[in-house]
Structure formats: structure tokens, C-alpha cells
Design goal:
Number of domains of chain B: 2
Number of strands of chain A: 7
Order of helices and strands of chain B: EHEHEHEHEHEEEEEHEEEEEH
CATH topology of the largest domain in chain A: Heat Shock Protein 90
Distance between the termini of chain B: 39 Å
Mean pLDDT of chain A: 81
Number of helices of chain A: 10
Largest sheet of chain B: 5 strands, parallel
Shape of chain A: rod-shaped
Helix content of chain A: 55-70%
Structural class of chain B: alpha/beta
Oligomer: heterodimer
Strand order of the largest sheet of chain B: 2-1-3-4-5
Structural class of chain A: alpha+beta
CATH class of the largest domain in chain A: Alpha Beta
Low-confidence stretches of chain B: 124-129
Shape of chain B: elongated
Mean pLDDT of chain B: 86
Radius of gyration of chain B: 20 Å
Radius of gyration of chain A: 38 Å
Order of helices and strands of chain A: HHHHHHEHEEHEEHHEE
CATH superfamily of the largest domain in chain B: Response regulator
Distance between the termini of chain A: 63 Å
CATH topology of the largest domain in chain B: Rossmann fold
CATH architecture of the largest domain in chain A: 2-Layer Sandwich
Helix content of chain B: 25-40%
Strand order of the largest sheet of chain A: 2-4-5-7-6
Amino acid sequence: MLFFAHTFEQTVSYYYLARILTVIVVGIISTHLLRAVIKKMNWLMLPIDKVLPKLFIAVIITSIFFILFQMGVYQVFNLSENKRKLDFTTRLLANMLNIGIFIIPWTLIYYFIHYIEKSSKQQLDTLKLEALVKELELKTIKSHINPHFIFNALNSIRALVDENPIRARTAITELSNILRSSMQAEKLETVTFEKELNIVKDYLALEHIRFEDRLQIEYDIDEDTLDQPIPPMMLQTLVENAIKHGISKQVNGGRVKISSDFRDDYHELVIQNTGFLNGAANGDGFGLASTKNRLMLLFGQKANFDIREVNGNTVEARITIPVSLAK
Amino acid sequence: MIRAIIIDDERLARNELKKLLLDFPEIEVIAEAANANEGVEKIDSLNPDLIFLDIQMPGKTGFDMLSELERAPNVIFTTAYDEYALKAFEVNALDYLLKPVEPKRLADALQKLQVEEDKEPLSDHPISVNRSILNEHDQVFVKDGERCWFVRLSDIRLFESVGNYAKVYFGPNKPLILKSLNALEERLDEKVFFRANRKHIVNLRLIEKIEPYFNGGLLLEMKGGEKIEVSRRQTVKFKEMMSL
């Protein structure tokens, strides 16, 4: 307004200054009132289509308020232009249009700034929540060690105390290693494959005590892969499943084979066990689905996990982790 | 002397239990089995008083094995950790031991068994009795989905034929078992269980009311409120039996 005043009026009269002052004061008061209403009614939280009609009415009311106020002030201080003599309603409408042109964009700008601010905050909150959920998911997967295994192992060890005390002693060490690593797993994102493999070896040694000749164990490990990072307890969980769903279901037992090698730019881990899939991949889905999620969270989209039946009597689980991404 | 069989797929677990049982001279372990099929075989041939039964076994679970048996012996379950199974126990108050077994718990379980035995001698096996016929004091193991029961035959009021299955009525429960009514009739004591018609076998001791029915038949009302029609042909037999 001041800008307009300066460009179009060369001489700034007393009347003009007073009128501009009035407009500014009235403008500040009325838009503040509008803002108070918007805040009080919580319109910022409403979706756009609901808020627009309300906003429109509010703007009209504000404009009327503005005009009446302005005209009242003009009247009292005798500031009105004397050039044209118009009746009250025409002046009201004309002024309303005049003022509305300023109030509408003003309100819209105000509204949209807040709207954008709010929605970006909302997005941030959603992201934070997702991150939290993922973290929790990882924790529950990591700390998973089958209690059935622990108590069976303890039972076997108790029987071994008399039968083979030396084996019983090593078995206790093996069990402590597994328990310790499952507790530490919660704190770590990844461990070296070597560390994880040692746990799995302890685990299978214990299961071998239980199953005796019903369980054959085979390793085919490329030594260069031992330094590769993998998520803690992931191999362990898969081997545990191989025993639980594979070997322990077979009257005559079977074989568990663990292979680790490089293939192209990937570190490939394969766990094979005697048994059948039986829709376990879908039914018992939480473990398998979360294994895949966990890999992707840690190593990106190129990491993969799948499980399938091969040769009619073997279940094969395969983890692939891109080497370049894994430092 | 209680003759017992241990059924568990792990040799060490069997050994451990045998060792614990050495402290109980009244228990004689007469055999061991490493899976459900072996278990059924040995139970059928040796007819033990008691079995220690592992739940998780390769092939068939302990529950599956029990439901295959004609007559369930006394059972003490052994399990390392099995939430679902334990839930089933709690509902039906069956006894179980958690591995590794605490000697005190084992003593309690055996004690409880002795008390029950004294109250109602289950297997005072008189040599002359034909074991292929089920006595009314015999118990059967019934499994229906997640739930399972040990039921004494004397508590069963009605068998109803449903296709290849038979619905077993006892208390508020009516689970299905995979047995035909004809097969059941052969094994049940005819002094207690009566074939009322093509579809029903009733327990004569659990009849509430008898009313005449059309065509010279009878209508039986069981203790549980079920109304069973006795066919005309069977009515003659029924009257004969009841007049004795």
C-alpha cells in the first residue's frame, strides 16, 4: 500500500497518511482475528477440501469487519474521499472487493505455509516410526534362540555327565558360546562369517549329541569368505530351522550341509538339509520373510534370500550378499 | 510292580530317565522305543501299565501315537519345551515332566499315579480277561484338533456314526475319532455298550429315561439330554438285556 502510495501520489497529504495508517492498523487487527479463529477451530488439521469453504466464508466475514471498521474510522475522523458520493451498500461492496483481493492471498499463503510445514513434520514422524519398528523387528529376530533346543541340550548333557564326562564338559562350553553370542547379537549389526560359523559349529555339535547318527554334518567353506560380514544369528537361525523342520522330522534323520563361496560379486551362503518344504516357507513365514527384510535393510536391494526344495528330498536355503557393498 | 515303557527318540534322554527311575524300585522299565511306530508295537505286545512319552518325535508326535492305540495306558508326558502341548495338558490335567527332569517332580508324578491306581485299579489284569475287549474302566485317548482328552469308557454315554468317523459324547465334549461304529462295537463290552440303531451305540449305565416309540420301538433319553431311537429289531434284544 505504501509502495502504491508513493508511486501514484506525488504529494503525501495528511489525509492520505492517516488513511494508510488506518488501513494498516485495521488490517493487522482483522487478520489477527482471522488467524485466531483458524487456530482456535483447528482448521490447519483439516483436509483442504473441507477447509476451503470455511476459509472462504471466514475471509468474507473478515473483509466485512475490515470495511466496517475502516469506514467507521473514516467517519469519525472525517477521512473519507469527498469526490464521489456513493450510497452505503455500493461502497461496502466495492471496498470489500478491494480489500478481499488482499486478504484472500494473504490467508491462503498463511494457510499453505502451515499446511506444508505440518505435512512434512508428519512425514518425518512416519519415517521415525518405521525406523523404530524395523529396529524392534531386528531385535526380536536376533534374540531368537529356540528354548526347545536349550532344554534338550541340557538334558543330553546331564545324561553325558556319567556316560562321557569329557564330552559333557565340551558340550557345556559349546552351549555357553551359543547363549553368549545370542545375547551379544542384539548389540551388533553384523559379525564376520567366521564368528557366526563357529557358533553354528558349536550348535551342530550339540545337536549331534542329541541325534547321534541320525545327523550328518558337512561343511564346504571357502576360507576367503570368512571375513565377510553377515547379520548375527542369521545362519544360526536357518540351521536351527534345518534341524527343527528337516532332520528332527525324519525317523532316519539326514544331512545338513553348509557351503560358503563367492559367486560373481556376491557372497553366497547355502544351507541344505534332508527334508521337505511342506509349505513351511509360507506358513511359518515370519522367520523367512524377516530374514529377507533384514538382509535388505543391511545390504540393500541386491541382497537376497530364498528357500526351495531340490532333488525331491532336500531343502535348500540360499543367502546372497553383494560383496562390493559389504565393506 | 509297575511295568513301564520309555518312548523318546533320543537315546541319551531315555538313558537319563532310566537312571532317574533307578531310585524308584516299584517301576520296572520293560522296554524302550525310539519313535511312535515302535512305541505302538511295544505297547500292543507288552501291555505296559505306564508309558513315559516324548511329544516331539520324528514321523508322528506322542499325541498321534496315543490316538492310534485302542486302549491308552497311564501316560506321563516328557517334553523339553512346548507351549502348545503344555496348554493342552493344562486344560485336561494330564501329567507331564519337563526335561531335564527334576527328581522331585518325577516322584510327585509317580505318587499321583499310585494314588489313582489305588482309588480305581486300572489294570489289575486278571489273566483270564480277554484283553481285546475294552473294559469300562479302560481309558481311551481322544484327540480333536488342538484339544485332547483321556476318557474312561464309563464316562462315554454315546457314540454316533458320522461318515467314517464316530462322534464321542462325554461331559460337554463331543470330539470325532477316526473309527467306524462297527469296529467300535466289536471292541466294546456288550454288557455296557448297546447298539441302539445303525447310527448309535449307547452306554446302558448312562440312560436317563426310556419311552415307548412308534412301531414298537423305544426312545432313550441319555444323561446328556440326547434322544436316541432304538430300532424295532434291537428293542427285543434291549428288553431281553434289561430284564436280566
